[in-house]
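#help-structures
NK: newbie question, is this the right format to request a structure? protein is DUF58 domain-containing protein
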Amino acid sequence: MLFLFSFWFEILYSISWVLIVVLGLIFLTDLVMLYRTGGVTASRILPEKFSNSDENRVEIIITNLYDFPLNSEVIDEIPVQFQKRDFLKQLYLPVSKRVVFDYYLKPLNRGEYTFGNLNIFVFTKIRLVKRRFVFSKDQMVKVYPSFIQMKKLDFLALDRKISLQGLKKIRRIGHTMEFEQIKEYVRGDDVRTINWKATAKKKDLMVNQFQDERVQPIYSVIDAGRVMKMPFAGLSLLDYSINSSLAFSNVALKKKDRVGLISFSRKIDSFLKANARLPQLNRIMESLYNINTGFYDSDFGMLYAQLKKHVTQRSLVMLYTNFEHISALQRQLPFLKAIAKNHLLVVIFFENTEVKKLTLSDPKNLSESARQTLAEQFTHDKIFMAREFQKHGIQAVLTSPQELSVSAINKYLEIKARGLL
C-alpha cells in the first residue's frame, strides 16, 4: 500500500524500502531462532485398546527444547473412521517444560484404527515463520467390545442395589450331585436321601443334603444375521449385543458359572465351550472382536442342531436376536420351542425406539396420524411377541438397545435368584 501511495507522495517510496529491509531482518531473525538450535519432542500415548461406544482417552506430551518460550499448534491425524478433519489445539510452551493435554474419541465400530502423523507447528511471538515437527507416525490401536461398560456393570452387579424389587436370594435344597452336608432326618425330608451308614453310626435317621449346582453352563448366542444390522444412535444391534454379552459374561464368571459363546447366521461363525476359568473372558473378547454381520437370514434350524449336538448339558441360553414382524417370529418359533425343551432359553430382542418416539408425538395432519397409527401397531406387535414367547415357556426380554446390558444382567440375576436353571 505504501508503494502504491508513493506514486502520489514520493517521500513514501524511501520509507517503503526501509520497512522492507526491516521486515526482512525480522523475518531472518525469526527464521534463525527457530532453525538454528533447539526443537521440540512430542509423543502420542494411546491405550492398549479402545472400548467400542465409549469415550477413550488419547494423551499428547510435548516438551520445548528451545531456550525461549514458544507458541504451538497441534494437528493430530485422527483415524479415518471418525471422519474428523478439523482437529487443532493451540498451546503455549514454556522453556524446557513438558506440556500435557488429552482429548477423547468415541469409536462406533470394532476393528483396527490407524493414527497418522502428529504434527507440531511452533512459532515465536514474531509469528512470521512456523516450523513443523512430525512425530508418532502410523500408530495402530484395536477397538474391542465395550470393556469399560463391562467394568461398570461388573460393579453394579456385585452391588445389592441391582437386585430386582421383590426378589430375595435363598439357598434352595436341591437334588443335584453337589453334596453339602449330612444332617438329622426331620419330617418332610426325602426318604430317598437317607444315609444308612451314618444312621447306623448315630442310631438316628441321617440324610444327605444336597445343594443346587453353583457352576452352571451359560451361553451367549448372538444372531449375526441381517436383522442385527439395524442402527440405533450410531451402533448396530449387533454391536449392542456384543457389548452386552461381554458384560454379562463377566458377571456370570464372577458368579462362578461356566460361560460360553456362540455366534451364527447361515452357519456357526464362532463357538466357545462353556468354561469357568478366568482366561475365558479374554477368549470371549477376542471372539467378539471378530464377529461381523452380513445381509443373510439366520438359520435357527441349524442353531438348534448344533446346540443339540455340542451342548448336551441343560444350559442357560441367552439368545440375542430381533424380530420386527410377527410373521418372522412364527417362522422361527418351532426351532425356539425345540431349543427350550433342552435348555432354559431367554430370547432378548429389541424395542424400536424411533418408532416408539413416533407414538408419543402429536400428529398435526392426517398423514402424521396415519404414521402414528402404524407405529402403535408395530409397538403392540413387539409386546405380543413377548407374550407369545411366555405362552410357549420361553423367557423373553424386550428392551431398548441402550438398556440392553442392564436388562440382560437383571434377567440372569432373576433366574439365579429363583433357581430356574
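mod (FA): yep, format's fine, and the C-alpha cells are attached above. The radius of gyration is 33 Å.
NK: thank you!
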